[in-house]
From TrEMBL, chain A:
<protein>
    <recommendedName>
        <fullName>CASP-like protein</fullName>
    </recommendedName>
</protein>
<dbReference type="Pfam" id="PF04535">
    <property type="entry name" value="CASP_dom"/>
</dbReference>
<keyword id="KW-1133">Transmembrane helix</keyword>
<keyword id="KW-0472">Membrane</keyword>
<keyword id="KW-1003">Cell membrane</keyword>
<dbReference type="InterPro" id="IPR006702">
    <property type="entry name" value="CASP_dom"/>
</dbReference>
<feature type="transmembrane region" description="Helical">
    <location>
        <begin position="82"/>
        <end position="108"/>
    </location>
</feature>
<feature type="domain" description="Casparian strip membrane protein">
    <location>
        <begin position="29"/>
        <end position="180"/>
    </location>
</feature>
<dbReference type="GO" id="GO:0005886">
    <property type="term" value="C:plasma membrane"/>
</dbReference>
Automatic annotation (TrEMBL), chain B:
<dbReference type="InterPro" id="IPR006459">
    <property type="entry name" value="CASP/CASPL"/>
</dbReference>
<feature type="domain" description="Casparian strip membrane protein">
    <location>
        <begin position="28"/>
        <end position="181"/>
    </location>
</feature>
<comment type="similarity">
    <text>Belongs to the Casparian strip membrane proteins (CASP) family.</text>
</comment>
<feature type="transmembrane region" description="Helical">
    <location>
        <begin position="35"/>
        <end position="54"/>
    </location>
</feature>
<protein>
    <recommendedName>
        <fullName>CASP-like protein</fullName>
    </recommendedName>
</protein>
<keyword id="KW-0812">Transmembrane</keyword>
<dbReference type="Pfam" id="PF04535">
    <property type="entry name" value="CASP_dom"/>
</dbReference>
<keyword id="KW-0472">Membrane</keyword>
<feature type="transmembrane region" description="Helical">
    <location>
        <begin position="169"/>
        <end position="190"/>
    </location>
</feature>
């Protein structure tokens, strides 16, 4: 028996898969899952680092008389939208690295992956909501900073703080990429789960 | 070894039948839940778009032009299309509302349970989750700016003047939040 098993390991495995449904997911899907989760981690880290390093101090002409010229710093911490952005993207990066490790574990031990995948779908969609909201919030505030708004008297600030604004724009683009990665992740999980549901 | 496989196959057949029955019952229950959630999403995104779309307030603002003269009262109007974030919010909610109506009809018509259609609906539900959450984030950030202002870049708060406008905007954000949560539940329950 042992010799048979060693002689035909592939056949044995195929027969086993056929006999005892559900069949294990193909390795390609889990590998794609691991790669996408790593991308999520990378985009979270990059977005946070770019946003945090956006400090810029400029000499600005103030509108009130006593100190007409002053060194005024611009930091992400000054806007609650950007603070939320940093927190959300940090959470996304942390989630990305943890789930990359779990997914790698599922790649090595495919037996328990259905349950794991199901739990991932819920958290992936939740993270998608959080990251999309962060991108929307940062984008809205950044757009007002870029163009200003004459109706409510918010002047534009990006012509003075161009490095700051460039960092914020780059960070927003990376977080947009992160949310697209999350959409793809959920689609991948849905696809691989729907393959495993028995047809009737 | 052979017998082992046979018994496994028989057992598998039995469980398959049972799984089938359970799945059909589950499907019926899921479909009712699906329809209710879709209807909720439709209603709340429509309400959010309308509430922000009709949001308009005209007041007079006292502006001091020259410090020796008394302040001049200038009429000022706040509407949703003055801020691009609000425009994005209204457009996103209108898209979500239209999509919820279309998908409601498709789900009602899809009695056979075609798999391709179901997958397409899940994909678009996911896109709507992203769209609605980002619009809620955008209007939330701008609304917070309106309530508190930002002293670092000298953006004054405006909600002390346009109080009704701001409150109505926040109501719209809440409604859209409920709509986005129902889309979220749709995706989660579909898997």
């Amino acid at each position: 028996m042992a010799s048979i098993e060693t002689q035909y390991p592939a056949m044995e495995k195929a027969a086993h898969d056929h006999a005892v449904a559900p069949p294990s997911p193909s390795k390609h899907l889990i590998l794609a899952d691991v790669v996408l989760r790593f991308f999520l981690f990378a985009s979270g880290v990059v977005a946070v680092v770019v946003m945090v390093t956006s400090n810029q101090t400029e000499i600005v002409r103030l509108p009130f008389p006593p100190f007409p010229l002053a060194h005024v710093p611009a930091k992400f911490r000054y806007s609650p939208a950007f603070v939320y952005f940093v927190v959300a993207l940090s959470v996304a990066g942390l989630y990305g690295i943890i789930t990359t490790l779990v997914s790698l574990y599922a790649l090595l031990k495919p037996s328990c992956s259905t349950k794991v995948l199901y739990h991932f779908v819920i958290f992936d969609v939740l993270l998608l909501g959080i990251v999309a909201a962060a991108t929307g919030a940062g984008g809205a505030v950044g757009y007002v900073g870029l163009r200003g708004n004459s109706h409510v008297g918010w002047r534009e600030v990006c012509h003075e703080y161009n490095k700051y604004c460039k960092h914020i724009a780059g960070s927003l683009v990376v977080s947009l990429f992160g949310s697209i990665v999350l959409v793809l992740l959920v689609l991948l999980s849905v696809y691989s789960l729907s393959k495993r549901i028995p047809k009737y | 070894m052979d017998s082992q496989y046979k018994s496994a196959g028989i057992e598998n057949g039995v469980t398959n039948d049972r799984v089938k029955e359970v799945a059909v019952g589950k499907k019926r229950k899921m479909r009712g839940r699906d329809l209710v959630l879709r209807f909720l999403a439709l209603a709340f995104s429509l309400a959010a778009a309308v509430v922000l779309g009709v949001d308009k307030q005209s007041t007079t603002v006292a502006v001091t032009l020259v410090s020796s003269l008394p302040p001049v009262n200038i009429p000022a109007t706040a509407t949703w299309h003055h801020l691009s974030a609000f425009v994005y919010f209204v457009v996103a909610n209108a898209i979500a509302c239209a999509y919820a109506a279309i998908s409601l009809l498709l789900t009602l018509g899809n009695r056979g349970g075609k798999k391709g259609l179901v997958t397409m609906i899940v994909v678009f539900d996911l896109v709507m989750v992203a769209l609605l959450f980002s619009s809620v984030g955008a209007v939330g950030a701008i609304g917070l700016m309106g309530y508190q202002g930002n002293s670092h870049v000298q953006w004054k708060k405006v909600c002390n003047v346009f109080d009704k406008f701001c409150n109505q905007g926040m109501v719209a954000v809440g409604l859209s939040g409920v709509a986005s949560i129902s889309f979220f539940l749709l995706v989660v329950l579909a898997t």
